[in-house]
Design a protein that fits this description.
single chain; 212 residues; mainly alpha; Endonuclease Iii, domain 2; Endonuclease III, domain 1; 2 domains; 56% helix
C-alpha cells in the first residue's frame, strides 16, 4: 500500500506540480474565514464574496466588532450564510479575546472556534502555517481515497486516519490539494474519466466500468 502511495504521489507531482488551495487569501485569518465559507459552496463563489468582506473586515479585531447583519449581507450568496456569519463573528471575537488577535497554530485551539472542525483546521494549519498534523478530507479527497483503495471509510475522520497511516507526513498537505485538483478535473463525482486518468493503471477500484 505504501509503495503504491509513492507511485500515486509521483504521478500527482508530474501532473499537478503547483497544486494549492483555490481560495484567495493573504493572511491566516482570511484563509480561516474563506475556508469556513467554502462549506457546501464552491471556491469560485467564495472568491467572489471575500474581496468585499476582507476589505471591510480584514482582521479578527475588525470583524469582532462587525454587526452580524452586515456580515450576513456580505456573504449572503453562500449557502447557510446566516449560520456562517454567526460563526465568523463568534470566531473573530474568540480570536481577539482569547488568542490575542492571532489565529491559533494548533488543532485543539482551532477546533475550539465556532464553526471550525478538523477539515478547516487542517487546511489552515497546513496551508497557512505549513504545520502538517493531518489530511484535509473534503468530498474529492474522500471519493478518490475510496476509489483508489486507500480506505473503505465514509466518514472524513476515518478516511483521514487511514490516509495518515499510508502517506508520509511531509506529503499530507500536497496530497489534499492535488487530489482536489484531480477530483475536479478527472476523477469527478458523477463519472470517473478513467480513459483520461494518468493513474488508471495503478487504480484498483473498477466495478463493471463504474467507479464506486
Amino acid at each position: 500500500m505504501r509503495a503504491r502511495a509513492v507511485e500515486v504521489l509521483d504521478s500527482l507531482h508530474e501532473s499537478y506540480p503547483n497544486s494549492k488551495t483555490a481560495l484567495d487569501w493573504e493572511t491566516p485569518f482570511q484563509l480561516l474565514i474563506a475556508t469556513m465559507l467554502s462549506a457546501q459552496c464552491t471556491d469560485v463563489l467564495v472568491n467572489k464574496v471575500t474581496p468585499a468582506l476582507f476589505a471591510a473586515y480584514p482582521t479578527p479585531e475588525s470583524m469582532a466588532d462587525a454587526p452580524q447583519e452586515h456580515l450576513q449581507e456580505l456573504v449572503k450568496r453562500t449557502n447557510f450564510f446566516r449560520n456562517k456569519s454567526k460563526n465568523m463573528l463568534a470566531s473573530a471575537i474568540r480570536i481577539r479575546d482569547v488568542f490575542g488577535n492571532e489565529v491559533p497554530r494548533n488543532m485543539e485551539d482551532l477546533i475550539s472556534l465556532p464553526g471550525v472542525a478538523r477539515k478547516t483546521a487542517n487546511c489552515v494549519l497546513g496551508t497557512a502555517f505549513d504545520i502538517k498534523v493531518g489530511v484535509v478530507v473534503d468530498t474529492h479527497v474522500g471519493r478518490i481515497a475510496r476509489r483508489m483503495g486507500f480506505t473503505k471509510a465514509m466518514k472524513p475522520v476515518a478516511v483521514e486516519r487511514d490516509l495518515v497511516k499510508t502517506f508520509a507526513q511531509e506529503d499530507w498537505v500536497y496530497l489534499s490539494h492535488s487530489w482536489i485538483d484531480h477530483g475536479r478535473a478527472i476523477c469527478t463525482a458523477r463519472t470517473a474519466k478513467c480513459s483520461e486518468c494518468f493513474m488508471a493503471e495503478i487504480c484498483p477500484r473498477r466495478v463493471e466500468g463504474r467507479m464506486t
